[in-house]
Amino acid sequence: MNPRTKTPPNLRNFFRLRDNYGRLNILFITIIGAIALVVIVIVSATVIRNQGYHYDKNMTYVDNVSDYASYMDFGAREEMYTALNSAMRENGVKKPPYFGGLIREGSYEQSTLAPNQYTSRFIVDIAEVQQSYEVYLVWGGIDSEAEFENFVALKCVKDDQKIYENFDCKEPTPLSSEQAAKAENYLPYTDRTEEGGATFVVRQDGDETIVLTLWTCDDQDLAKEYEKMGREWLENETMIDLDRYQIKVENVCDGAAI
């Protein structure tokens, strides 16, 4: 029999260190993996919270809405997502996508109706189905305590705004025709020149009157032009039931002051 060969002390220490290092390596990888998992969960939860995501076949999400209005109420977002999904179905899409709506760069406009209550107008493009819609939205901030109804209306984009030439758009049906007909969801509205001066202002006065204010002083030709612009805006850019209202026209000066 061969005598048992003893492992030199230095080599025993090497094997011991190697085993310890291996166990530490496994522990380190386990800890890093656990941290990464926690980070993924937190980030995913934050995205879901910010976007108001929950999977619903009747909604199509606008992926970049928080880039423009991060404080928009989730209820308003869901109404917009539902309206987009419904519009696509009306325009021949049997199974609209869950995601993929994008606010077109340069199209977003926002104004304040009251503290923490806003109106927004913008174009949403859905590349997957090659469709675009103009969105008009009345909404409150996440922390809004005001009592009002969110409102969304969709329209086909104008010909000069089309990026999908083959899309023959059918005007979407409002999800609530009664709500869409109310002037309060669109007014007040101020139209401005490129220099920033007001041309006309449309506001509601009581339950039955819409006031069209023209900033033209005594220029009668300009007054006719601005009145025509104001009436066309009411007819073409809103869904207001104009038969319900009397339109009162007034003429004032210094539109740049508005």
Describe this entry's structure for a reader.
By secondary structure, this protein is of the alpha+beta class. It has three domains: 20-51; 65-180, no CATH class; 183-257. Helices cover 33% and strands 24% of the residues. It has five helices and nine strands; from the N terminus they run αααβββββαβββαβ. The strands form two sheets. Strands 1, 2, 3, 4 and 5 form a five-stranded antiparallel beta sheet that branches. A four-stranded mixed beta sheet has the order 6-7-8-9, with helices on one face. It starts with 8 loop residues before the first helix and ends in a 6-residue tail after the last strand.
**How do the helices and strands follow one another from N- to C-terminus?**
HHHEEEEEHEEEHE
| Shape label | elongated
Q: What's the β-strand tally?
A: 9
CA radius of gyration is: 30 Å
Q: Give the low-confidence spans.
A: 45-52
**What class, by secondary structure content?**
alpha+beta
Oligomer: single chain
How many helices in DSSP terms? Answer: 5
What average pLDDT do the residues reach?
77
Residues in helix, %? 25-40%
* Binned strand content: 15-25%
Largest β-sheet summary:
5 strands, antiparallel
Number of domains: 3
Distance between the termini: 108 Å
